[in-house]
Design goal:
By secondary structure, this protein is of the alpha+beta class. The protein has three domains: 2-125, Nucleoside Triphosphate Pyrophosphohydrolase, CATH 3.90.79.10; 138-181 and 193-241, Phosphorylase Kinase, domain 1, CATH 3.30.200; 246-477, Aminoglycoside 3'-phosphotransferase, Chain: A, domain 2 (Alpha-Beta Complex), CATH 3.90.1200. It is 42% helix and 20% strand. Strands 1, 2, 4, 5 and 6 form a five-stranded mixed β-sheet that branches. It has a five-stranded antiparallel β-sheet with strand order 8-9-10-12-11, with helices on both faces. Strands 13-16-17 form a three-stranded antiparallel β-sheet, covered by helices on one side. Helix 9 (376-389) packs across helix 11. The longest helix has 21 residues, at 319-339. The radius of gyration is 25 Å and the shape is globular.
Length: 478
């Protein structure tokens, strides 16, 4: 159940013999459970809570639901995490014990949770269903892969902090320490020591593009991306050095924000003329011909989605308004084509949380939403997030704007073309965001997304009205 402290989550913890770890503190065996805060990464929150409550170092394998996944509303109480101990031979805390054949001893809710967990886990563990990390032994296989790289760096693993874990995705921090430390060794001025920690990340569908894109970005722009230690194409996974820094969103100095704007433009400029290469890496194609082709099915869907709006306000756009809006979007696409700003790599979800600040300089992470598109939409997402989340730093805006638009793009293009592109970018950024998922029949049928889609279309309508009313307004006055 949920309360003010958080949400309750049940844990099915297995060993190599398929025994289940139970809590015996009440006399009858029960599945361990933890409370986790809302709106957090479940893997990280659950493993942290399990350590604090039971002293357990867990590794999440996958999750299961006690109710169908297509149910209209699912509570966290319906979620069960299937995990194992990081160290299979670790001593157990008091009141925890391994049990077999315990279904009859469990309460009703625990029996339901255990049944759902094993139904989800068994096909992966037996390889009836393919996976990268859905088996009990997957952690052993991952460690066998990355351990030689730790050896090469003179490091040993001291533990894992997990953020995400399921049969196809993995994200965890590998805590390390040097294998040997000379007792009488003195630090060498300017020497770079081994990394404090490493990260392992692997991605599955629909985000497998992030693997190839990340490797390409790190190779082309090594100063602005985390250093890749090794990669595994079978898992779409890579091992990288930890960036010693903090999120840009926490930065109180305006200089790193301005540098981020400039470096974003520099990264994009590096990939101008490489559209085919980027598409081959798996970047989504959101060039104007593709956007134009998506407008008909999108607005057909929106007519039904608007009709399903239960009440007003907010304003429900009728069919004639939507059809007029589609014509405006077509005109917008043609105007973007006419301004002739080259397509390049574009981040479709760029924000201060995608940037770490290390020694005052930005380092980019998380490029799952990599597009080939009109580059200024990335700036628009970044700019809007900054304005929304940090209104107290309005005095940074001009420098950020100048760094992105004029220090990098204007020398390649012209100031007038850059200005025109920036005038068009707010509406185009919303349009491409609204079109997300148009190629996925399941997402198009997902009624839980209706409210968000209606909101984006109203925002699109608003941005196009602003563009129409302020054509002559200088871009710097925005």
């Amino acid at each position: 159940m949920s309360d003010d402290k958080g949400m309750r989550l049940k844990l099915v913890i297995l060993d190599q013999d398929r025994r289940i770890l139970v809590d015996t503190i009440g006399g009858n065996p029960a599945l361990p459970e933890v409370m986790i805060p809302p709106f957090t990464r479940i893997g990280y929150a659950a493993t942290t809570a399990a350590h604090e409550k039971y002293g357990l170092e867990l590794f999440v394998i996958t999750e299961a639901m006690t109710k169908p996944r297509d149910k209209e509303s699912l509570d966290i109480e319906d979620l069960v995490l299937i995990s194992r101990l990081q160290d299979a031979n670790a001593a157990l805390p008091v009141n925890l014990a391994w049990r077999v054949q315990l279904q009859a001893e469990l309460g009703v809710q625990d029996r339901i949770a255990l049944e759902a967990a094993m139904k989800e886990f068994e096909p992966y563990d037996s390889a009836v269903k393919a996976s990268s990390f859905g088996r009990y032994r997957s952690l052993n296989e991952i460690r066998a892969w990355y351990s030689p790289h730790l050896d090469r760096l003179g490091l040993r693993e001291t533990g894992i902090q997990q953020w995400n874990g399921d049969p196809w995705f993995a994200l965890f921090r590998i805590k390390t320490e040097p294998k040997t430390i000379e007792a009488d060794a003195e630090p060498v001025a300017g020497a770079v020591g081994p990394p404090k920690a490493l990260w392992f990340k692997a991605v599955g569908e629909p985000n497998t593009r992030e693997y190839a894109v990340t490797l390409a970005l790190a190779q082309e722009c090594p100063y602005w991306f985390a250093k890749i230690i090794a990669s595994n194409p079978e898992w779409h996974g890579w091992l990288m050095e930890e960036v010693d820094g903090h999120e840009l969103d926490e930065e109180l100095d305006g200089r790193p924000w301005a540098l981020t704007a400039r470096v974003l433009a520099k990264v994009q400029k590096r990939f101008v003329g490489k559209e085919d290469e980027l598409l081959a890496l798996g970047c989504r194609d959101w060039r104007m011909p593709r956007v134009l082709a998506a407008l008909d099915p999108f607005f057909e869907d929106m007519e039904e989605i608007m009709e399903r709006q239960p009440s007003e306000p907010p304003h429900r756009l009728d069919r004639s308004e939507l059809r007029a809006l589609k014509i405006q979007c077509q005109d917008l696409c043609h105007r973007v084509e006419d301004v002739d700003i080259p397509y390049t790599i574009t981040h479709g979800d760029f924000s201060p949380h995608n940037v770490l600040v290390s020694n005052g300089w930005p380092v980019f992470i998380d490029w799952a939403e990599a597009y080939v598109s009109f580059p200024f939409i990335s700036w628009e997402y970044f700019w809007n997030r900054m304005i929304k989340d940090h209104p107290e730093h309005a005095d940074w805006h001009e420098r950020m704007h100048r760094n992105y638009a004029y220090r990098v793009w204007a020398p390649l293009l012209t100031k007038s073309r850059v200005d025109e592109g920036l005038r068009l970018s707010p509406a185009m950024a919303v349009l491409i965001l609204a079109l997300y998922g148009i190629d996925d029949p399941e997402q198009r049928r997902n009624r839980r997304a209706d409210k968000g889609k209606r909101s984006l279309v109203r925002r699109l309508h608003h941005e196009l009205e602003i563009l129409q009313d302020a054509e002559a307004e200088p871009v710097g006055a925005r």
